Records
---
Amino acid sequence: MVISVNDVRSNPNEQIAHAVAVLKGSERLRDVFDAICTGGKKPKTVSQLMTKTGKSRVVILQLGGRLADQQLVHKTKVGNETAYAKDRYLASKRAAIHRLIKDPRKLAKLPTKYSPRGNGGVVRVVVPGAKIQIKELHVEDFDQFAKIKKMKPTSAPKISERAFKDGVLKLIGSTGKFQDWGGEPNDLYTTKLRHKGQRRAMAFAFKGPGTKGELTPKKLGKNGDQIQRLFLAPAEIFVVQYHDAIGQSVVEQVQAFASLNSVREGKRINYCIIDGDDTNRLIMAYPKQFGLK
């Protein structure tokens, strides 16, 4: 699935967040970025970067091209040789970028238009030339939840958030513990839930009956940043569950962060939205696990 979205470079904090996402996973990429950004205004040739970094010409061309494709530097020519010029704004924020790479919690607090603080905004991301691979899964797609396929939309007795979480743990066969305070990136991280017979790394965010009305981003976490923190987990499937209706803005934000992870990690990222109807179906499909029998 490819999502058409707006420019990730449209405001200063987004430029920083985008740079962190690109550079985070590769020390070699950071080395070349730093070499291009240090020194004077003149572009650095491939030969100069080879000397500064100790890397081969092929490696410099590969990494420099990747940085240019992601709009972190500018590709140009000096004479007949390929060269790279620094982006003046990002070069000036290089120290901040490195701090955020080292401390994901600080990154989670960085306000951007796709991660505003409590105003219900939606992520809008574009990375020119990048292949975005995301896919929506449904609750019935997971092996341990298979009985839900036989369940039509139905009502279910109200159960507490704790009872629902415990029921999910029983179905997964997990002995893990839920995180119930706002500083944790997710409520549950597990590799025991299976999708098409294979175990997958999954991160869950749950919102129980204590939250009222349609779920919007500002209701997700104390600072409205729960989805952003969810996607810090090393997972390939991300799940948001709520006992009532889930607003379109939440779905769009989940899709956008899935897109960011897909670009950064170079692989498909899956997401699943479990709204009130699917929550009821799951409870009634497995009443014993959810404490109803």
---
Amino acid sequence: MKNITVIGSGTMGNGIAHTFAQFGFNVSLVDVNESALNRAIQTITNNLDRQLKKGFIDEQGKQATLKHINTYTDLKIAAANADLVIEAATENSEIKLGLFKQLSEICSQKAILASNTSSISITKIASVTKNPGNVIGMHFMNPVPVMKLVEVIRGYSTTDEVTNTIMELSKKLDKVPVKVNDYPGFVANRILMPMINEAIYTLHEGVAGVYEIDTVMKLGMAHPMGPLQLADFIGLDVCLAILNVLHSGFGNPKYAPCPLLVNMVTAGQLGLKSGSGFYKYTAGNKDLIIVDKFSK
């Protein structure tokens, strides 16, 4: 396995491309327009510069990584010779199903088709393909070059061979793969999202402010960042989408998204990506300012 195609050049997609390229794989990064791809390459370059500054790589390693990445706007060209395709498009079921149906027509029957979905059923995604046994989930964590975990999600039809191949491949990326079964939210988000949702309810009900809630979880529970800051970094729209999948999949009211989260997403306050969520973000960096209306 040498040729990797990554669909989507956003935060997760460019991180996945960066990681595979750094380990010597040939990466085809595909998105709908050139400007998105140019931003992705600039982000990867900036992240490589940080690794260089910290001594994790040298200049030769940086240049080699960039040379291993080619960009495309045509999915047919980008995926034609892929041994593995990793879809990292937006967390939208219809978009993912459409992409996998296309990939089933474009790719070799031997190619493994993986989704970086954080909650959508791998079994459902596989159902639109010609070879559902070759479909699997590879849920990377953000930031991909740094975080060790890969949730490897086995769909109902995923074969032992494909599962074992992805487990071993993840180890070659210096990751720790964990095999899980295909249920809404898998493991990571089935546990994480209710915690974030409860933190939002705690704010919504006036129990405490943003700073207070995050400080309790950081200092009291040893979390590296509080749940509200983490929600901003994930994207409040993504959090809402995952909670909707959990609520629909289990039919349990405990997964119902907090009305405050729904209102914030409706108002376009999506967190870091929009410049404002539970925190405000200053231009050019990730410094935090508490949003006035939530302050105590």
